[in-house]
Amino acid sequence: MSPITEVEGRRVALSNLEKVVHPATGFTKGELLHYYATTADALLPHLHDRPVSFLRYPDGPDGQVFFSKNVPPGTPEWVTTAKVPHSDGPTRMVVIQDLAALIWAANLVTEFHTPQWRVDAPEEADRLVFDLDPGSPATVVECCEVALWLRGRLAADGIETHAKTSGSKGLHLLAAVERTPSRRTTEYAKRLAVEAEQAMPRLVVHRMTRSLRPGKVFVDWSQNAARKTTAAPYTLRARAEPTVSAPVTWQEVADLASPEGLVLRAPDMAARLQAYGDLLAPLLDPAHAAPLPPP
């Protein structure tokens, strides 16, 4: 029988707490649940009111890894859900609003992915995102060079940018924007990706074509599309190590000398939150939301 724990008055069933889910370090499911419980104050505001897609890896990254967008079978009735548009017609998705729902979802062993819009205004983006993905032999070091250029270019349009690791091999840039149709944010992001390629043709590519990407940084603008999602801040990733998609300072970006310098793992996060707080907190403040420039 699975142990039952009480979280903020809710009864949550936990399971297989000793199972290793990140094999490189022996990181267990129990440690994963502890990570999410202790990081919840920073993580939950970034999930609030956003439909969540789960990338599940219940047997670790070497087992079956699969996306789940619909409400999973057996979801407790107290977990918030919402009907959202989908290419195949409306679907119902989980919305994680509190600690109990977070721990229930974490027990599924999952990455958390969200769109750039909230459930009260589907397809009206309040975030802009760029996913900087290096093609070998390029690394996150080259991503940082591109990130600094994009930061300056966005600042010229009055948009404040924040950085986080992807938790894999790249870097994510995020900005708070006034609510804008996702079609427009996508067009704007593509325009800047093209400009980045023109400014740094030996370093940047804006097209997804894999044959163009070795040695370059792919500036993925497409995650601004309404149907797309991005790994949420502070989510663990389905990797051999318990790496986190974690915010970083611009000083860390500017000073990076080797890829290992921006590999952040679950055990690192308590100290970072103690030192910096939530570096992405400005994304949650409407005062930081900027209008997009005209097309």
TrEMBL record:
Keywords per UniProt: Ligase
Domain DNA ligase D polymerase: 28-279
Keyword DNA-binding part of the UniProt annotation: no
Gene3D superfamilies xrefs: DNA primase, PRIM domain (3.90.920.10)
Domain of life of the organism encoding this protein: Bacteria
GO molecular function: ligase activity
Keyword Ligase in record: yes
Record protein name field: ATP-dependent DNA ligase
Species annotation: Streptomyces nodosus
